[in-house]
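Example 9 (inverse folding). The structure is encoded as follows.
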């Protein structure tokens, strides 16, 4: 399996699923007469980030992960989304960006150094394989899974197949 094949399809599968989750969440709010902000601002615990931020971060880990592995400029994406539609647009832009990468851009990426921020005053450098398997994918899946969990916790009728995008 190429490094590209281990990266881009995994991001695209879950990003596409997030689009479906956003649509189901919005439909749930309409059907149950719930203000969208109740879900958009939902948190699992007060010190955790809200649903909206979970979607934004999942998008960031996909886009920035690919950029860092391909050694191209890392995109700057302001976090301005406040509605389901704006979040769907962000996910769609991320999908388009991730789809723009070609397999050749990932050749040798598994052994190249990847430097990335690891907090406000610190950066880390890892080999591409370690960056992908120990940082980029786990963080991407974490934020996508938290977003799914927040929706389920708030009554949206979704399951594992929705998370995987196979429903």
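The amino acid assigned to each position is listed next.
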């Amino acid at each position: 399996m190429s490094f590209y094949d281990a990266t881009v399809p995994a991001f695209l599968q879950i990003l596409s699923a997030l689009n479906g989750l956003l649509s189901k969440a919005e439909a749930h709010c309409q059907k149950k007469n719930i203000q969208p902000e109740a879900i958009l601002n939902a948190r699992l615990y007060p010190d955790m980030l809200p649903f909206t931020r979970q979607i934004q971060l999942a998008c960031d880990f996909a886009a920035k992960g690919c950029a860092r592995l391909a050694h191209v400029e890392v995109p700057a994406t302001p976090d301005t989304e406040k509605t389901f539609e704006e979040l769907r647009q962000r996910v769609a832009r991320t999908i388009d960006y991730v789809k723009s990468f070609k397999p050749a851009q990932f050749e040798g990426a598994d052994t190249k150094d990847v430097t990335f921020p690891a907090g406000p005053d610190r950066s880390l450098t890892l080999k591409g394989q370690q960056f992908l398997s120990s940082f980029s994918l786990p963080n991407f899946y974490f934020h996508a899974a938290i977003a799914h969990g927040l929706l389920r916790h708030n009554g949206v009728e979704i399951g594992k197949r929705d998370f995987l995008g196979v429903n």
